[in-house]
Amino acid sequence: MKTLDIHTHLLSSEVKFDRFFDKFAINFFAKKFGLEAKELYENPYEAYKKGLINNLRSSKYVGKIALFGVDAKVNERGEILHKDKTVCATNDDVFEVYKENPGIIVPFFSINPLRPDALELIEKYHEKGFKGAKFLQNYWGVDTRKERFRAYFEKLKELNLPLIVHVGNENTIHSDKACEDISMLYHPLKVGVKTICAHMALGYDGNIFRAISKKPRNFNKEYHALLELLKTHDNLYADVSALLTPVRAKVLRHLSEQKEVHEKLLYGSDFPVPYSVIYNSYDLNFKTRLDLHKLQNPFDRYANGILEYFDEENPIWSNYKKLIVE
């Protein structure tokens, strides 16, 4: 079995791993992600690209990845208000990786709709071969429900470009909580855009008991709302990226039993977001956890974790073909 990972990140070419979270992640997770900590400190961007491609080419289960960066936070004049030095990779950086690895990279662009030339930029990158779009509207402070963004969504629909929308908590960069909920999907869905809800809309409401509970009735309301929307909207899909992170993993058993939505689920990892396969909230026994932990390739380790809940015949592994036009 070979699949496409619908949710992977290119890091900024200006990345420097000098924040506390970065240092923690590198020291504890670099080796498990097929990356060298020393190289990441000395030449972070090149080391990251090298590790990403090497991992992908050696993966047993993942043959291609949808790769994207994140546009900067801008004002309505297109002036940069903030550009995160870790996640804000440019579309041109993504294009360079794609040109060097055309058979395994499927490029997605990230274009902030507040840019005055946003529609022209969509056309530009579509002509370059980009196959979809990625929104981090909660970082941008963009309320997608506003009518002013209709032309943006109409352009995506016209070009048959799918849109990945982040729904749920964001903990690595500043996030506007008002732009994290499931209503961020409504406008592109109404216009007819093939819309992908990232991370199964999972989030936390501050209630520790509910956050750690494995009872479905305690899962956040957006997750349950998404399951219903998947049944009623033909153009809505959802990815399982980041579901192996400790708290989110608890929903995997429940999701695996919701067979009526499996035709709408997409495999994705959220690489390089770190996660633990030993200390996690899923219901796998310790031997299985240990076997997963021993897998060296991070793409295969994530895929094998998901395979514990969705076997190789499940449509989750092939549904990407409904959205990616190659």
Q: How would you describe this structure to a colleague?
A:
The strands form 2 sheets. An 8-stranded parallel sheet has the order 1-2-5-6-7-8-9-10. A two-stranded antiparallel ribbon has the order 3-4. α5 packs parallel to α7. α8 links the parallel β7 and β8. With 326 residues, it is an alpha/beta fold.
Secondary structure tally: strands: 10
- CA-CA gap between termini: 19 Å
Q: Helix- and strand-based class?
A: alpha/beta
Q: Roughly what percent helix?
A: 25-40%
C-alpha Rg, in Å?
19 Å
Outline type: globular
Helices, by number, come to 13
Q: What is the topology, as strand order, of the major beta sheet?
A: 1-2-5-6-7-8-9-10
Largest sheet features: 8 strands, parallel
The amount of beta strand, in percent, is 5-15%
TL;DR?
The protein has helices at 20-29, 37-42, 44-57, 91-100, 118-127, 137-140, 150-158, 186-191, 208-212, 221-232, 252-256, 286-294, 298-307; strands spanning 3-9, 62-68, 73-74, 80-82, 105-109, 132-135, 163-166, 195-198, 236-239, 265-266.
